[in-house]
Specification:
Length: about 150
């Protein structure tokens, strides 16, 4: 029933919510979601039957739950209430999703920068007053007079 509602709300031709609603709720366009859903199709994300012979969660349900947890920092208890997915299943799904995303997209997106891109980054951070910095600015080297004592 949860899968049928999800499909009726977002994915069927005459769905309840329009593209703008989908983008606002899931922080991406529907075609990006569908590409992501297609790309993570390995055994964990396929719908199987549980030990009682009932259908398990659909790929759509699993990816939607993970995206809501990531996009909004949603608690797993909320996923149980809204999607009927237990805490352990939510956490397993999140872990499988993250591992799968790294494996699928690492060659395309997770690579060391080439020299041209590195130079572009250096120019950009220099314009913002941080010459020579590559990486995040953690402010550990700055004195902060009101710093909580636990952080000093």
């Amino acid at each position: 029933m949860t899968h049928a509602n999800l499909m009726n709300n977002y994915f069927n031709p005459n769905s309840v919510y329009i593209e703008e609603d989908f983008r606002r709720r899931f922080r991406m366009r529907r075609h990006v979601f569908e590409r992501l859903l297609h790309d993570v199709q390995h055994p964990y994300f396929r719908q199987n039957r549980d030990r009682a012979g009932r259908p398990s969660f659909s790929p759509h349900q699993k990816v939607i739950v993970v995206l809501r947890m990531i996009a909004y920092g949603s608690l797993v208890d909320l996923m149980d209430e809204t999607h009927g997915m237990s805490e352990s299943t939510c956490l397993d799904t999140l872990e499988q999703f993250c591992d799968t995303i790294v494996q699928v997209y690492k060659d395309e997106y997770l690579r060391e920068p080439n020299q041209e891109y590195l130079n572009q980054l250096l120019r950009k951070v220099e314009d913002h007053g941080f010459p020579g910095m590559i990486g995040s600015l953690d402010c550990m080297h700055w004195d902060w007079k009101n710093c909580p004592t636990g952080r000093q």
